[in-house]
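Anyone up for a design puzzle?
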C-alpha cells in the first residue's frame, strides 16, 4: 500500500478513534468478539505491542487488516468449461475400498432403524479383515 493511499485511508477510516487503540476499541471498530480480537492479535493478523498485560494497537495496523481483507474478498472470475472439453477430459478409474462394492470417498449407509445396518458393516469388516470373499 502506497504512503499517499495509506494517508488518505487513515484520515477517512475510523476518524473518531485514537492513533493507538485498546482491545476494546478494536472490538468496537470491527464489530467483533473479545475472543476474535485476541485471536487476530495473537496470530499476527493485526500487529500490536503488548505492554504488561495490555495490547497497544496502532490504528494503521487495523486499516491494513481491513484493506487486506477487502482484497481477499474480491470475487475471482469463474473458469468456464465447454462441453467438448468436458467430454474429452479423461476420468480417472474409480478406486474401491471393497472391490465392486464401496468406492473411495464419502459413503452413506442408510435405512430404517433396526434393520441390520450395524450388523452388515460388522460382517463386512470381518470379511475384509480376514481376506474372505464378500
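Challenge accepted. My sequence:
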Amino acid at each position: 500500500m502506497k504512503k499517499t493511499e495509506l494517508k488518505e485511508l487513515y484520515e477517512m477510516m475510523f476518524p473518531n478513534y485514537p492513533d493507538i487503540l485498546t482491545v476494546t476499541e478494536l472490538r468496537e471498530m470491527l464489530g467483533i468478539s473479545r475472543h476474535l480480537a485476541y485471536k487476530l492479535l495473537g496470530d499476527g493478523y493485526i500487529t500490536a505491542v503488548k505492554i504488561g498485560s495490555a495490547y497497544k494497537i496502532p490504528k494503521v495496523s487495523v486499516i491494513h487488516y481491513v484493506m487486506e481483507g477487502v482484497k481477499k474478498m474480491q470475487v475471482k472470475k469463474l473458469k468456464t468449461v465447454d462441453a467438448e472439453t468436458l467430454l474429452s477430459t479423461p476420468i480417472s478409474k474409480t478406486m474401491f475400498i471393497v472391490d465392486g462394492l464401496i468406492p473411495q470417498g464419502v459413503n452413506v449407509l442408510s435405512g430404517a432403524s433396526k434393520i441390520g445396518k450395524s450388523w452388515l458393516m460388522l460382517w463386512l469388516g470381518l470379511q475384509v479383515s480376514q481376506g474372505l470373499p464378500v
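A detail worth pointing out: Strands lie at 20-21, 49-51, 54-58, 96-98, 102-103.
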